[in-house]
């Protein structure tokens, strides 16, 4: 067993009380979603760099990873894509550093009522993320599959529900907290679910989704984020190199079978 505890589970009811780690030999505290982020970090720690003092803090409840990073309760986080990060920075009035783009979790369209997009009933409910960046991402995926039309075909990260110009099946849209989207499948005609939450709910995106985002040109790669002051920290730089290595790319392909896609091509 390596010297440092690899994974620490925290809920919103439990506050962090660790002092900020500044020394290069101190454990590197990385806040991460359980799947796949913490699993990828565990692979790095156990298989590639057992000497790296890494402590993974798995998030749940109402803990906000970017606030923990801002407040010095963590040294880095690994759970988000850049559009979400930029919206958080704007709301918080801070600027963070992106040090590595690791993988894409393709957003998917899921249904328990339809076996194909052609079978999705008219007048049904479409459940979307209530995160601004993921709302636009979901709308773009619906448009890409011919279910709606937006005012601008390339609206991308800026699309909102107000941009829905054509809705031929008269869908009703509801916005839900991302972790709750899998539960909406019992009631919704379609749920637009982030890859990590689909995996946590026992879904296999490459098998179960009616449609998935394309990886090519996808702006939603999940990234390793730290503060500007820690961006050149040797521990951060080493972790960034490991997360973008061929070994991690091979692990992602093998474990997630197309449900998570490494940014690295080889």
Briefly characterize the structure.
The chain has 266 residues and is an alpha/beta fold.
Description:
With about 270 residues, this protein is of the alpha/beta class. The protein has 2 domains: about 5-105 and about 220-260, Periplasmic binding protein-like II (D-Maltodextrin-Binding Protein, domain 2), CATH 3.40.190; about 110-210, Periplasmic binding protein-like II (D-Maltodextrin-Binding Protein, domain 2). It has 8 helices and 14 strands. It has helices at about 35-50, 65-70, 80-90, 130-145, 195-200, 205-210, 235-245, 245-255, and strands spanning about 5-10, 30, 55-60, 75-80, 95-105, 110, 125-130, 150, 165, 170-175, 190-195, 210, 220-225, 260. Helix 1 crosses helix 8. The radius of gyration is 19 Å and the shape is globular. The two termini are about 30 Å apart. It is a lipid-anchor.
| Radius of gyration of CA atoms, rounded to a whole number | 19 Å
Q: What name is given to the CATH topology of the largest domain?
A: D-Maltodextrin-Binding Protein, domain 2
Q: Rough shape?
A: globular
Distance between the termini: 30 Å
- The helix-and-strand class reads alpha/beta
CATH architecture of the largest domain: 3-Layer(aba) Sandwich
β-strand number:
14
Mean pLDDT: 89
Taken together, the total number of domains comes to: 2
Give the CATH class of the largest domain.
Alpha Beta
The residue fraction in helices comes out at 25-40%
Largest sheet composition? 7 strands, mixed
Uncertain spans: 1-5, 10-22
Kindly report the name of the CATH homologous superfamily of the largest domain.
Periplasmic binding protein-like II
Biggest sheet strand line-up: 1-3-2-4-13-5-14
């Amino acid at each position: 067993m390596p010297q440092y505890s690899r994974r620490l589970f925290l809920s919103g009811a439990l506050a962090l009380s660790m002092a900020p780690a500044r020394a290069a030999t101190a454990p590197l505290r990385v806040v991460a979603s359980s799947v796949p982020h913490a699993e990828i970090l565990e692979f790095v720690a156990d298989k590639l760099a057992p000497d790296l003092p890494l402590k993974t803090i798995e998030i749940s409840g109402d803990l906000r990873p970017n606030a923990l990073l801002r407040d010095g309760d963590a040294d880095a986080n690994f759970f988000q894509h850049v559009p979400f990060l930029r919206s958080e920075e704007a709301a918080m009035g801070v600027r963070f550093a992106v040090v590595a783009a690791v993988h894409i979790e393709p957003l998917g369209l899921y249904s328990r009522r339809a076996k194909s997009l052609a079978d999705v009933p008219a007048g049904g409910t479409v459940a979307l993320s209530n995160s601004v960046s993921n709302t636009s991402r979901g709308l773009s995926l619906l448009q890409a599959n011919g279910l709606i039309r937006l005012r601008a075909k390339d609206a991308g990260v800026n699309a909102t529900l107000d941009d829905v110009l054509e809705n031929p099946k008269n869908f009703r849209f509801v916005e839900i907290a991302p972790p709750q989207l899998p539960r909406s499948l019992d009631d919704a005609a379609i749920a637009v679910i982030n890859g990590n939450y689909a995996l946590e709910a026992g879904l296999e995106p490459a098998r179960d989704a009616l449609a998935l985002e394309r990886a090519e040109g996808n702006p939603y790669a999940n990234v390793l984020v730290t503060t500007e002051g820690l961006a050149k920290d040797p521990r951060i730089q080493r972790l960034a190199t490991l997360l973008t290595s061929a070994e991690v790319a091979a692990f992602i392909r093998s474990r997630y079978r197309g449900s998570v896609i490494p940014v690295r091509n080889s």
